Amino acid sequence: MDDPASRLPCRAAAPDARMGSGGDAPRPRPPGGRSRYAAIVHHIRANLSRRITVKELAGIASLSVFQLSRAFRREHATTPYRLVLDLRIQHAMDRLSAGATISETALQAGFADQSHFTRHFKRHTGMTPKRFTRAVAGPAGRAAGGSRPATRSEPSR
């Protein structure tokens, strides 16, 4: 099975990518940078169903909230909060693909409710969780009664 983090957008999936200014060689990484990032990602994945604060993540990295935020923007082109959202959405996509319901997926992925989940899911993927579920199911899922009829009957007069 592939790693869900490998499907994250480039900004979160490439923790080692550095953008040099004006063609300069990448600056050397401070000691512990990669292991801090790995520890943060591990912590997020292990605690997806509960509220995760940036302060908590900063504590794991032994940095202040501001230092962590600046380091994330500089080294990963994202914010810690965005990483949490990206990992939650990836987890939700995996759960939905496995046949979980939208409401249980929303809670397991750490969203306050189904509406909160749907809003972030649609912003991230461009489709609602229901459309995603139907797309993953493919024609076989729709043939089994997974979608509405294509046309409506005329109202009676």
Describe this structure in words.
This protein has 157 residues and is an all-alpha fold. The protein has a domain at 32-137: Homeodomain-like (Arc Repressor Mutant, subunit A, Orthogonal Bundle). The chain is 59% helix and 0% strand. It is built from 8 helices and no strands. It has helices at residues 10-13, 33-46, 54-61, 65-76, 80-97, 102-108, 114-125, 129-146. The longest helix has 18 residues, at 80-97. It is elongated, with a radius of gyration of 20 Å. Residues 4-31 and 143-153 have low confidence and may be disordered.
Helix content: 55-70%
Name the CATH class of the domain at 32-137: Mainly Alpha
Structural class: mainly alpha
Report the uncertain regions.
4-31, 143-153
CATH-defined topology of the domain at 32-137: Arc Repressor Mutant, subunit A
CATH superfamily of the domain at 32-137: Homeodomain-like
Number of extended strands: 0
Question: Can you summarize this structure?
Answer:
The protein is built from eight helices and no strands. It is mainly alpha-helical. It starts with 9 loop residues before the first helix and ends in an 11-residue tail after the last helix.
List the keywords.
single chain, 157 residues, mainly alpha, 8 helices, 0% strand
